[in-house]
Amino acid sequence: MNGLWQVLLLALLPGLGNFLGGLAAEYGPSSPRLLNLALHAASGIVIAIVAVELMPEAVAALDGWWIAAGFAAGAMAYLLIDSWVESRQEQGGGVGVSGMWMIYIAVAVDLASDGLMLGSGSALSLSLGLTLALGQVLADLPEGYAVIANFRAKGVPRARRLWLSASFILFSVGAAALAFLLLRNAPDMAKMLALTFVAGLLTVAAIEEMLTEAHEAEEDSQGSVVAFAGGFVLFTLVSAGIETMIGAG
Fold it and tell me: What is the pLDDT of residues 197-245, one digit of tens each?
């Protein structure tokens, strides 16, 4: 049970990161350029999570075709979720209250995938779970910024905006608990397949969702490239620092 409580605490972090990003949009400066840079940085972080933490774990334990299958399944899951959200937006006109709830659903699904990743990673080791949690905090800050900006544009009252932003924490915690309980006693192969599934989902989300939204907010500049590379470098340094501290301990 101690392990479960540790996972739940880790799963709070992505939701809190999203909420803090929302507070930054609510009370701090905002502009399309800042949103473009923030989303590029978040994309770099997500790609680093996949390249530095998730895929090396899988490559060390699974045959190539299992990795390909797991990654493809994650990518397909993202496409199915995205198609469902788009169809709901079209039915509701994509504006007003309906549009707001479609944004909410999309972000809730994303936070649930964060929780799935944390639960799967923590089932392998809590040190991996900690590294992934810190990386997701960094990546979810700009997402929280973007969602509050969207809610403001749709005229959602401030109190409701803040409550909706805070409620995203429930999705990351719930998904993490479910994944951990299902996988903690599962064979290592199942845990690794779960990681490759999440890797596929995150990779497609970073490219198709974060970068697309960044391009829609503002035209790319050299600063956008620097932000993307900086996000990758930042997470890599965080990961290396955690491994060093754990090794020294």
Answer: 988 988 888 888 778 878 887 888 899 999 999 989 988 888 887 767 6
∠ Cα 77 81 84 (to 5°): 140
Q: Which tokens belong to 105?
A: 């659903």
Task: Measure Cα distances from 56 to 53, 122, 161, 245, 248 in Å.
Answer: 6, 16, 39, 20, 22
Query: For the chain, which residues make up each domain, given as ranges?
Result: 2-248
Task: Of 105, 118, 116, give the one whose Cα is nearest residue 167.
Answer: 105
Each residue's pLDDT tens digit, 9-31 = 888 988 888 899 888 888 877 77
The dihedral through the CA atoms of 237, 239, 240, 245 has a sign that is positive
Provide φ and ψ at 94, rounded to 5°: 70, 15
Tokens of 135: 């990386």
CA 172 to chain centre: 9
Distance from C-alpha of 7 to C-alpha of 1, rounded to nearest angstrom: 10
- DSSP 8-state assignment for residue 84: H
